Amino acid sequence: MAGLQRITQPTLDVLEVLLRSHKEGEKIHGWAIMKETKRSGPTVYNALDRLEDAGWITGEWEQLDPDANRPRRRFYRLTGDGVPAARALMAERRPAAVKTRPAFGFAPLAQFRVLLAGGR
Fold this sequence. Notes:
The chain is mainly alpha-helical. It has 6 helices and 3 strands; from the N terminus they run αβααββααα.
């Protein structure tokens, strides 16, 4: 596993969201990460690319019905090596966030599923 060459504040923001997602047992897509971190698409996706290149995360494209009227999403999750590496980095760089943050800062993962399924 290659190390991270650049550790920026946006990268830490993305890792924080990925760790919470991991804790909840969920994969999360880029748009949800953008929404949670309040960072722009290019910023989030550059961080995701660096994390994927380092082997800390993996991404997979969703299987989408050909009749769906939207683009496919790429879902991300921490790898087996990425979980302890991300925890260690966050404990070093943002110890207060690791200790005090609730499991998920937004309820949306469950709500996204309901909305995507057509519920309210």
